[in-house]
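notes to self, project folder thing:

trying the whole complex as one job this time. last attempt i did each chain seperately and stitching them together was a nightmare. three parts in total, labels are on each line so i dont mix them up again. if this works i'll redo the older ones the same way
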Amino acid sequence: MVTEMTTPILIALIINLIYAKAIGLTEGIAAREVGNDFWMATLMAILQGAVMMVITVLLIKQNAKEDLVQRAKSIVGPILGGLIGLLFVLYFAGAYAVVMITFVDHLRDYFLPELPTIVFVIVASLVALYAMQKGIVVTGRIAVVGVFSIILLNILLMIGTIEDFNIERLFPVFRTGIMATFLASRHADTDFAMASMMTGMILPYIAQKDKWIKATLTGVFYGGVLVMLWPILECGVLTAPETGHYIVACMQMARSAEIGWFVHRYEMIMVAFFAISLLVQLMMLLYCGVEAIAHTFTQKSSRLWLPITALFSMTSYLIVIDHRRTMQFLSVIWPPFSLAIAFLVIALLLVIGYVQKFIKQRQRFASMKKS
Amino acid sequence: MDTLTAMRYQTAISSVLAYNVFLIKEILVDNSDLIERPFTVTLDHELDGVIFYIDGLSNNQLISQALLDPLIHKSLEQELLGGSRQQSIGTIEKILVTNPEVKIVKTVGEAIDNLLTGESIVVVEGLSKAFTMGTKGWEARMPSEPATELVVRGPRDSFTENMRTNTSLLRRRIKDPMLRLKTQKIGTRTKTAVTIAYLEDVANQRIVMDVQERLQSIKIDAVLESGYLEEMITDARHSPFVTMKTTERPDAAAAAILEGRVVIISDNTPFSLIVPSYFWDGFMASDDYYASYFLGTFSRIIRLIALVISLTLPSLYVLLVSFHQEMIPTQLALSMAAGRESVPFPVLVEVLLMEIAFELMREAGLRMPRPVGQAVSIVGSLIIGQAAVQAGLVSPIMVIIIAVTGIASFAIPSYATSFTIRFLRFPLLLASGMLGLLGFTAVLYVLTVHALSLQSFGEPYVAPIIPFRPSEQKDSLLRVPWWKMNTRPTFAKEKTRQPDPLDEQRKGQKSG
Amino acid sequence: MKRQVVSWLVLLIISLVTVTGCTDSIDINDLALVMAIGVDTKGTSHQVEVTAQIARPADAVGQTGAPTGGTGEPTWTAKAQGRSLFEAMRNLMRYASRRIYFAHNKVIVFSEAYARQGLADAIDFFSRNHELRMRTWVAITPKKASDLVATKTGMQVIPADSIEKMFRYSGFAAKAPRINLMQLEADLLSPTSDPVLPKVDLLQNGLAMSSTDKKKSETQVELAGAGIFERDRFRGWLTNRETQGLLWFISPPHSRVYVFGCPTSDQKVSVEIKKYHFTLMPKWLKNRLSYDVSLDDDAQLVEVGCRYSLFDPGNKKAVEQQVNQRMETEIRQVWRRMQKEKLDFLRLGDHLKAMYPWRTESHRDDFDQLLPSIQLTLHIHTQLRSAALLQQPMTPGNP
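result (full assembly):
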């Protein structure tokens, strides 16, 4: 079953993981921080995302049979590795919460304002649990559907807003300075980090080892391109200050788009296309969380499905229940935490792994010389 | 079967005629259709024998022509050689063996098994074996126009209840030495003959083996219809989706065989099974291949629209009208509100009422004799179309929604697929009615995941769309013209049907 | 085992949702679909008065088999007061039998008195609420907004519909800009621009509904210019001319009509402008800001009352010049008004920002003070290209 994972599926998964939060919440936060330059920030994030992805792939490539947690364990020993494994679990819990925020904010605020938040969290988690139980190949396939719908959504949105698009609004760039823009790209980085962490957990299942780098970078690139349309349109149609005013900027876009006078509201079309991608994201993060904790404690993962789902939904519910807490989490806590793990910890592991390899080789040479 | 019978069943045919006759008659006791016909052949010695056959299953004429006549004629022609009794017995054996369809059986059980399939049994004094003669012949329906898969253009014959007829219909279409028709008996009591038909060099060996293994592992007492087999060997046991296409069209079965699929033909039913089959096969009709490829492709797109409509339209209506009214264009919103002004039920209840009424009508029309069925549909359409609206029970737009949904579900060629879709719209409807867009999305996602997790004999069920198989796109949503249809599905062993004529041309030009 | 747990959970959720009835559902016939909103002040106590035109579906749609209810009027107008906009809206619920629902609202009309106090909170309210469309038209009226909203007018069954369509096709009349909520919001949020809203007024010129009802001449809602704002507070009205000049800048008209006297008689010549190209180029020259406006247009003869042919080069020139002159007057007038008011309702700042991002940044807060010193260079170029179907005018006795 696992052998069926092919590189196109990996690419589709990466695109899905990047997309959903990046187009709305992230842009709003970035626009509040650097105004007009938020689209430049997203552009920068694609490069950084590619770097993160390469680091992760290189780390897994050191031993193609192990995922992130197992790598960590075999590099720094079971105890320290276990701690890092727990850190990864924490990361996936956080990422799950982030995606849940995206899901709930889209559906609750724009469609069902009176439905209790817990219902959203439970329904989404149950669906993700169901998909996880069917295995990641199935999710990989649905991710392909997700990519199709993402492309369709992008096209529809482009048609719906092109009339109001004003390229002048995109400029000037770097008004807040290159450094500030670069710093603001950390928000979009977190979205790419999600993709690279997920890749780190599932890469061992993908057979063609020599295609890894190419495939993942393709995923990041296409994901980035599909995301990029949004900040550009948001900036060119809504203007940066307006983007910043809304919590979910992409929905505001959809609210403003129309095709003719008949299709006058896009929100539903948008959510319908976009929910697939969101649910794929939820399921993958859940899966990664379960795998991470299973490998940390060397447990059978199927036993952990229910408790982990419950745990993840609980934490995300506690965050998503309050708008203020949500924004605090998204804009202040999450970026440094997420990047510290997805970039620093991984890079550190990579370096240690190389050094170990180097030393081992030296030893081998030495012993060969002796003999 | 009690132990005594079982014991008798396993007894070997003895050389004592009376004993054999006794055993057979004891096992098949109290059967009015068991005919016992003793005869005597006079060669050097007078030899007694008995012919058994089942009245109605065997052809009486054939028995007298092919069996009795030679015995008696031979006995007249035979010169009296003054040979021993043993020699006479040998002569009879020789005479009987010349018959074209003869088998020699050694036990009473075998003899009876054959007897029950319509063959005649000949037991002769002094021979410790019995002869079964191929005298099958019973009243059977002639191949007539198929009742379920109608086509505008295409052959009008269909499978019948007789398996031999069915296999002959296939043979007549595929005159290829590689066509294999393997038969086995399934069902401890019914001993139904089940044939798998495939092309040896085209079908994937893995799939053929898989089918055979699954069929062999079936433990069931009776197989009265291929539906029994379908449920016993399906991959998706707990699923509303059907992972095997059924057809009663020999041309559809032949086409499937030519694509490298395996067709399972069961005796006593005109419905054969095609494996592996995709979800989308339910949306393909034989017409697509016979009519122009524009028409074929167009019809498939229409059916895809029918799928979307019949699955989602009522749920979309419910979620729009009771949750997301902002999405409806204003004029339409006003019309909907006006129509619902006097309706006493919530939208969900209204839709459910109408859906159930519709399903009732469909069910009633299906089972009634044809003249009554028409009355049912007239009354039903009056009630639903006219009276319900005038009485203020349902809104006019609701009626349109239900009608369009119903029509759309009828536009799906495969009855099984159509039923699946109709069934699946109920969970979707309930979820949308309770949680609006959230419920709709969640259930749709779950359904998609479920469908994607299914397999049909090792092939992903939603292929060739997901996973996407470029080479199979020639015959999925599109139906490319026949000169382009030069590949088989990816699971086939031999993947090219015929070389691409354009390629040939190019090659010719190069060499020329 | 796991399967069981999952199915129990599912069952639990389903019963939670269905049994407790904690869903969000409300059927469409239990909603009061608001079609237009008018916002007034009430008295002097800063109370807000909201008037809502609500559709009565049964009567608005007509014969549907459902019994029509009561008055036979397609709409019902309700009014309520409150200390804030939202409170007033909620107070509507005190006597509306259905839930007030704004998603299908088409027009928001502010009264002048309310606009003088500032629109910021109203705009915040309307964009914060997820029900409202961002393409709702926004207008301002010198009369009471409640009168405007309550007026039954136009060809449409629902009066708000006719106002909506009036705006949609206002490009032909070119009497008022088209501003929707999205545009207004952008103007309000922009550091330099000042909002401008179309003016709607009541007009007593409609014909009576039927000949038996001769006494009552019908009231109509008309588009009648524009009102300008400083930040979110109303400042004043533009004249008709000024509005027409304004349109070139912010709400390009679909077509324009100019009427002149014939050169030879007292008859009239009408010219329609359909195709044009308007560009606005800011320039910094020696610390002095100037704008180049160029307007290239194609004119077409649509109505000629005298002997006049397009093929006479003199005639052609004369008409073209007159069109040029008219356009220039319009544009100069609105420009002067802008400089006088020191309000950037022509969105000059936004154009400048695109060209000179850094310099605009430094004038971010005092851009309005810069306005009077800005030079305007006009290049108008009209081409009379077509005389529609006729070669020669239809003048009496002219074979």
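what i see at first glance: Residues 64-68 of chain C have pLDDT under 50 and may be disordered.
need to look closer tmrw
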